[in-house]
Input
Amino acid sequence: MEAAGQALASLGLTLRSGAAYGADTAFENGCDNAHGPKEIYIPWQGFQRRFIEEPGVIGKDMNHYYEAEKLAKEHHPAWDKLSLGIRPLMIRNSYQIMGRDMQSPCLFVLCSTPGGQGQGGTGQAIRIARAHDIPVFDMGSMDLGEINQQVLQLIQNKDVISCT
Output
């Protein structure tokens, strides 16, 4: 994951991530190794001991917050059962997929879920991406050679942002 983050950043692609421990951190470390561009969205200051400058902190004062919240509600199977503390974790997926302006969808999603089952917060990002016809490459279930080939084809055909 770190190698993938570094390789994609060295090609000039922007990482969009949510600063979670695990895959997010690995992709971001790789991006940082290549001094690549990134957009990091955190649900609140101090999340995973991260403090970042606005506008990457999810909050009602963030541009397009209500649009991002609406998108999150539409794609979460049990939104009404989520606590107020968990909802910002799901809303940040809207920004990761659709961009800070909610009008700039990513080119693809590169992620890793156990067994490729698309669970948890990553599952929320996957649902949003698929609803917008954005290809999803889940390293938990796909052959890395196949992922590399398909990602390279996408990159060669477009000059847009990548996300995880």
Notes: The CA atoms of residues 107 and 162 lie 5 Å apart. The chain has one domain: 2-157.
